[in-house]
UniProtKB/TrEMBL annotation:
InterPro entries: NAD(P)-bd_dom_sf. This is Epimerase. SUPFAM superfamilies: NAD(P)-binding Rossmann-fold domains.
Length: 276
């Protein structure tokens, strides 16, 4: 397997450690960044760095990046002033370029935000079309990637809330008022996100997968422990005026297909640190 060349589009908070782990495992790794200053960080992680922007058309060294066997697309959607159509347009332009490339396997890092909060367990088949989704633009982006099959292997990985290291839950709610304390979390530690993506790459798995920790403690339990551990001001927990809707994302499919053993199955035991 390590004779494969892997390109990661988006070497950010998840993409950079993923690339580092793959390079350590013997793979040739290329990666993109939007900033020249970050090229040195990629080089230090044994990643061949290239500049690329998607505005939404690709600007930069895309042709070199597409000279690979596996392509991981890890570009978080940023709506805001650019509008909901911007990210699907980015992915559509990428997909058109991929069709002209030697890429054999495309992995798109999506999000469990596609699932509406229906007060029940959510599985992959629950959202297949934009109109079923709480984030229709994200499903549209998924579909642009899915249409690359059957000419290429295609995998959609819907990650839960990525946490760990410097992403400490308590700092986001310190001193605030929280009325959603009873809601279960759907978190994924960054180490496990890397581990699951590595498993998908090495096993050439295809399809749609949820990637979340198998345990789902409440937000209140998470926030209380996080604030106690790191000295943040505890939020004020109040009862909501009406029940806050929730969802529990099931990772059973990805666990079954990969055989992966989570380093951090319980978000109450996630590893955190001040550095990334």
């Amino acid at each position: 397997m390590p004779d494969k060349t892997i390109t990661i589009l988006g070497c950010g908070w998840l993409g950079l450690p993923l690339g580092r782990a793959l390079a350590t495992g013997g793979f040739q790794v290329k990666g993109s960044t939007t900033t020249p200053e970050k090229l040195t960080r990629l080089e230090q992680a044994s990643i061949e760095g290239h500049l690329l922007r998607l505005n939404p058309e690709p600007e930069g060294e895309l042709s070199i990046l597409l000279q690979a066997d596996v392509l991981v697309i890890d570009i978080p959607p940023r709506a805001g002033k650019q509008g909901d159509d911007f990210h699907p347009a980015q992915i559509n332009h990428l997909a058109n370029a991929i069709r002209q490339s030697s890429i054999k396997h495309v992995i798109y890092v999506s999000s469990t935000s596609v699932y509406p909060e229906l007060n029940r367990v959510a599985v992959e088949e629950d959202v297949q079309e934009p109109e079923q989704s709480a984030s229709p633009a994200l499903v549209q982006a998924e579909q642009y990637v899915q249409r690359l099959a059957p000419d290429r292997l295609v995998t959609i990985v819907r990650c839960g809330g990525l946490m760990g290291y410097d992403r400490i839950p308590g700092k986001y709610v310190a001193g605030r008022t929280v009325d959603s304390g009873a809601v279960p979390v759907n978190y994924l530690h960054r180490n496990d996100a890397v581990g699951l993506l590595k498993a998908i790459i090495t096993q050439s798995l295809t399809g749609v997968y949820n990637a979340v920790s198998p345990e789902h403690p409440t937000r209140e339990a998470i926030y209380r422990k996080s604030c106690a551990d790191f000295g943040y001001a505890l939020p004020t927990f109040i009862d909501p005026v009406s029940p806050v809707p929730y969802k529990v994302i099931s990772p059973e499919k990805i666990i079954s297909d990969t055989g992966y053993l989570f380093q951090y199955p319980n978000p109450l035991s996630f590893l955190y640190s001040s550095g990334a």
